[in-house]
Design brief:
binds protoporphyrin IX containing FE; alpha+beta; 48% helix; globular; three-stranded antiparallel sheet; 17 helices
């Protein structure tokens, strides 16, 4: 199948300028059409809000089976490293379809309760205050290195029962998994990443084994013990897969959310002043950041039969790349979509957390973390500004997006 991307639209998602600012491509693509086929990726690219929304809400026609698959197939050597570690990509939650997904999601909801999320607020506030005290020194900070990189990991690890000392190890494992699934690594890199991912998988397995032997008050134990009426419990492998998933989804996304948040509010001085003056504007500001600068800019589905998307015929078993970042700036839904507006009335119609049966399990936790961080920094450092002339860099992958470093400064 040849490309039907108009010639003026160059789609090169693993390199600048796309990595630095994919929104230029999104605006052009969305205006040019609802769906394009890219032969290099072998994906159909979906650009508009109404189509992305419908696809996420119609699992019968659009399966999640490819959601976590490596974007390009792994070389046999990398594959064998993962097989030897008994890693298997069997569908359990994120890449499962109903009815199997429905059952596991119910168990995950039982273990990941609103009570567990709400109970994290004092902890999030404490860590933010501690990092500000210890790391924000001499009027300068790297908001990623000194705050956003570690904070969400400490939070979700506490939920899951992972020791804080393991943050660097798990962060490294999570990044290798991310690049395997959503990046475009060379063969040599694939082998290195597969080793790191295999050890990350073993780590998740050991955690589940330890909690099976000795239950504690944490999500991992609750997931092992969760029961949905008289249905059988989740298997050890099922629990490991969910726990392994959270060891990535639970912090990389939120590191990016905090990075994108600080970047946007410190750039827009009116928004920043208002946030400092009226902290009650923060929750809607966070929704607008998720819309305007989504931490997950693309997600995947596969057609289960031949379908039409936005009037374009798409065959059965076609891989779809849903451009969430583009949907979130669709003028059909958002007035003046390229404008960042913390008062936007319908900001929460963004699709940053997905929609429907797979709607992000951790959305309430992510929102809580971004709100608390913003409350604390704006209260303590109203004079903070971005350090001028810095070039932001982003991890070369198709989905997860946030600056790798973000320098800020203040007087006094
Ligand atoms: C800014 C932060 C976050 C963003 C942007 C985000 C985004 C997403 C997206 C786009 C999906 C796929 C939804 C779909 O297929 O319809 C998803 C699913 C998921 N997210 Fe998040 N996420 C974030 C934070 C978190 C956190 C903090 C956790 C856990 C503590 C988490 C756990 C999950 C899980 C387990 C799923 C799969 C749910 C299922 O398949 O039923 N996420 N997330």
């Amino acid at each position: 199948m040849p490309s039907n991307l108009p010639e003026f639209l160059e789609f090169d998602p693993f390199r600048d300028p796309y990595l630095a600012d994919p929104y230029v491509f999104f605006a052009k693509a969305r205006a040019a059409g609802p769906v394009f086929y890219d032969p290099a990726l072998d994906y159909w690219i979906v650009t508009r809000h109404a189509d992305v929304r419908r696809i996420l809400q119609t699992p019968k026609l659009f399966s999640a089976a490819n959601a976590l698959a490596p974007l390009s197939p792994l070389c046999p050597h990398a594959q064998s490293i993962l097989t030897q570690a008994s890693f298997s990509a069997d569908p359990v939650l994120t890449n499962a379809d109903p009815p199997a997904h429905t059952r596991v999601r119910r168990l995950a909801n039982i273990a990941f309760t609103p009570r567990r999320v709400a109970a994290m607020e004092p902890f999030v506030r404490d860590i933010t205050q501690r990092f500000m005290r210890e790391r924000f020194a001499n009027g300068r900070v790297d908001l990623i290195r000194d705050l956003a990189w570690e904070l969400p990991a400490l939070v979700v690890f506490r939920v899951q029962g992972v020791p804080a000392a393991d943050v660097p190890r798990v962060k490294a494992g999570a990044e290798s998994r991310l690049l395997v699934m959503f990046g475009h690594p060379s063969q040599e890199q694939q082998i290195q990443l597969a080793h790191s991912m295999a050890s990350f998988w073993r780590y998740a397995k050991e955690l589940v084994d330890a909690r099976t032997a000795q239950p504690r008050d944490d999500f991992t134990t609750d997931l092992i013990l969760a029961r949905d009426h008289d249905l059988p419990a989740l298997s050890r492998h099922g629990v490991t897969t969910v726990v392994f998933g959270l060891l990535l989804a639970g912090h990389e996304t939120t590191t990016n959310l905090i990075g994108n948040t600080m970047r946007r509010v410190l750039t827009d001085r009116n928004a920043w002043r208002e946030i400092c003056r009226s902290p009650e504007s923060i929750p809607n500001a966070v929704e607008e950041i998720l819309r305007f600068d989504s931490s997950v800019i693309a997600w995947r589905r596969r057609t289960t039969e031949a379908v039409e998307i936005g009037g374009v015929a798409v065959p059965a078993a076609a891989n779809l790349l849903l451009l969430i970042g583009s949907a979130n700036r669709d003028p059909a839904v958002f007035t003046d979509p390229e404008r960042f507006d913390i008062h936007r009335a319908n900001a929460d119609q963004h699709l940053a957390f997905g929609l429907g049966a797979h709607y992000c399990l951790g959305a309430p936790l992510a929102l809580l973390e971004a709100r608390v961080v913003l409350e604390e920094i704006s209260a303590r450092y109203p004079g903070m500004r971005l350090t001028p002339d810095q070039t932001l860099r982003f991890l070369p992958n198709i989905s997860f997006r946030g600056p790798l470093s973000l320098l800020a400064e203040w007087d006094g």
